[in-house]
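Private note to self, pasted from the team thread so I don't lose it. Backbone tokens:
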């Protein structure tokens, strides 16, 4: 894959993006492959740390409850006596109990074919039923061995100019007051902070591209923005702006960096 010119990344960013490789399992019944790994994306991101990786159990993918649901905006409480985990978000309330093949959602019991379990003081819940309980899409991509929970947030800006780049088949909105420029380099659209780039420095912020396998084709803390017809559309990033030594240039870079989510939330496949 062709690359934009990029600076060194923080070690943790590389670990999270490149080494978050997990024991794999399909969301449907079937034998679990041996020595194969799976990536997990929550709302387009990889939030999990090494000690809370998903596991295979009873031919199902189990996700660490707290790490995943807090990323989704739920408040998690634990009742040690009842071995119950309660998820709350607004008026929604979901209760899952260790060893019980059902969960309670807003006072109604819902059957499951496998039960949550406790390991190393962490509650693990079946991915399929997490999706059902939260109303979020949980998808299993068998070829790439990726589980996605939810999707990256989207927003639109009425009346704003939408920019379409044919080579990557994506469009986006660039905030008017963002000191950010972009240019196509091979099959990647690279975004830069202008003042750093104009002096010949490294103003690289992030890049948009489309790939067949995020686990092998992206690095540096990538996000999945869309998945269509076997193609993943997304972004990956640079590391620590502290690498920029000049104070004024670093401040300019940090201001531009704060616009990244605003831009990514406007990205769409096609025009």
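Design output:
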């Amino acid at each position: 894959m062709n690359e934009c010119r990029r600076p060194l990344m923080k070690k943790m960013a590389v670990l999270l993006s490149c080494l978050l490789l997990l024991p794999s399992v399909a969301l449907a019944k079937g034998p679990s492959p041996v020595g194969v790994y799976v990536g997990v994306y929550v709302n387009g991101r990889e939030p999990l740390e090494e000690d809370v990786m998903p596991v295979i159990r009873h031919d199902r993918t189990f996700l660490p409850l707290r790490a995943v649901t807090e990323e989704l905006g739920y408040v998690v409480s634990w009742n040690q006596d009842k071995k119950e985990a309660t998820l709350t978000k607004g008026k929604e309330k979901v209760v899952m109990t260790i060893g019980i093949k059902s969960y309670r959602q807003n006072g109604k019991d819902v059957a499951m074919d496998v039960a949550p379990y406790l390991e190393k003081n962490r509650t693990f819940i079946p991915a399929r039923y997490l999706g059902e309980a939260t109303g979020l899409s949980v998808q299993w991509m068998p070829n790439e061995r990726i589980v996605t929970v939810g999707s990256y947030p989207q927003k639109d800006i009425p009346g704003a100019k939408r920019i379409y780049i044919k080579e990557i088949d994506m469009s986006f909105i660039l905030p008017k007051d963002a000191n950010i420029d972009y240019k196509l380099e091979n099959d990647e659209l690279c975004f830069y902070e202008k003042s750093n780039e104009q002096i010949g420095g490294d103003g690289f912020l992030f890049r948009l591209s489309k790939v067949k396998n995020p686990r092998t084709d992206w690095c540096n803390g990538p996000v999945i923005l869309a998945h269509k017809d076997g193609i993943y559309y997304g972004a990956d990033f640079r590391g620590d702006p502290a690498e920029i030594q000049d104070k004024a240039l670093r401040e300019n870079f940090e201001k531009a960096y704060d616009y990244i989510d605003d831009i990514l939330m406007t990205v769409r496949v096609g025009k």
